[in-house]
Amino acid sequence: MDDKVRAQYAHNILENPVFQAAIDVIRSETVQAWADCPARDLEGKEQLWKLYRVNEKFLNIFKGYVESGKLADLHEKQEQSSLRNVQDKVTKFFRR
After folding, report:
1. Gyration radius of the chain's alpha carbons
2. 82 located within any domain
3. How far apart are CA 7 and CA 78, in angstroms?
4. Measured between alpha carbons, how far is 4 from 2 in angstroms, rounded to an integer?
């Protein structure tokens, strides 16, 4: 799957209200569980912190796919522009 297709899929997922709600629930419930966790339960707090970070990493992977697709699109447009410039120069050269 190329970067532009992956980016479109990732964008659609990130914009999906059900996905957004699920991410928000995981985030808020994890933070609340961490806040409710007794101070002496260091292992529990550590596990909740890891869960929070995994959730953020998961979300950032999708965001990275979207950004990669934007870069791929920009790169493709730059290549097309360069090709048009060369074609224009060749055309002008042979019209002399």
Report:
1. 23
2. no
3. 19
4. 6
Residue 85 Cα to chain centre, angstroms? 32
Distances (CA, A) of 63 to 38, 95, 96: 34, 48, 50
| Rounded (10°) angle between helices 17-36 and 42-95 | 150
**N- to C-terminal Cα separation, the chain:** 45
| Residue 39 DSSP label | T
Q: In 11-84, where do the E strands start and end?
A: none
> What is the pLDDT, as a whole number, of residue 16?
98
Full domain range(s) for residue 63: 3-70
Residue 87 falls inside a structural domain? no
Q: List, for the chain, all residue ranges whose pLDDT scores fall below the cut of 50.
A: none
